[in-house]
Amino acid sequence: MPMHERIIPYLERAGLYHLARLNSQWFWLDEPMVSAFIERWRPETHTFHMPFGECTVTLQDVAFQLGLPVDGEAVSGCLGEFETYMEGGRPAWEWFQDLFGELPPPNKVKQMTVHFTWFHERFSVLPPDANEETVRIYARAYIMMLLSTQLFGDKSANRVHIQWLPFVVNLDDMERYSWGSAALAWLYRCMCRVANRNVTNLAGPLQLL
């Protein structure tokens, strides 16, 4: 999804601008190398066992490579019944409509996720005469895509989870969260899952590998 110039200030304030710039021109995933790393991952220690010793991805790597904030409040939430934590139990999709101005069609929704093509089709072109509230809506959509695809992607690789709604309500508050810590924890979890021989697809912030 294009990164419009007018949403850049929101990305900068959220601490996500550097991550947003890691697009296909800046980053290319070396799949054979990643596969080699997976073979040497040890879930017991969260380290790679190499011929020269052990090594791992650290929080410093996350800060330097992705430019994410590593200080601040923890990024947390409940994936199961998280609706009950949203504004005193307010229905999540009602809140979604308030934040984005509309709801995706039923064929783009699966449980608590929205197919990323809806975001791409709906928010790719920012109107030239858009007011600031419209710009904020487009910034929310871009950040939801960024979090769900580049940082906290799952094996489907095509879904945007609406668990991120509480974080994009007030875009100016996003910088107070430690997105770097959450990304590293998610990478470790994904690596441990794929270390199981029954799991074949690797997800997570693979730029760090």
TrEMBL record:
- Which ranges carry the Aminotransferase-like plant mobile domain? 15-209
UniProt-listed GO biological process terms = meristem maintenance
Q: InterPro entries annotated for this entry?
A: AminoTfrase-like_pln_mobile, MAIN-like
Taxonomic superkingdom: Eukaryota
Q: Which PANTHER family match?
A: PROTEIN MAIN-LIKE 2, PROTEIN MAINTENANCE OF MERISTEMS-LIKE
Name used for this protein in its record: Aminotransferase-like plant mobile domain-containing protein
Query: In the record, what lineage is assigned to the organism producing the protein?
Result: Eukaryota, Viridiplantae, Streptophyta, Embryophyta, Tracheophyta
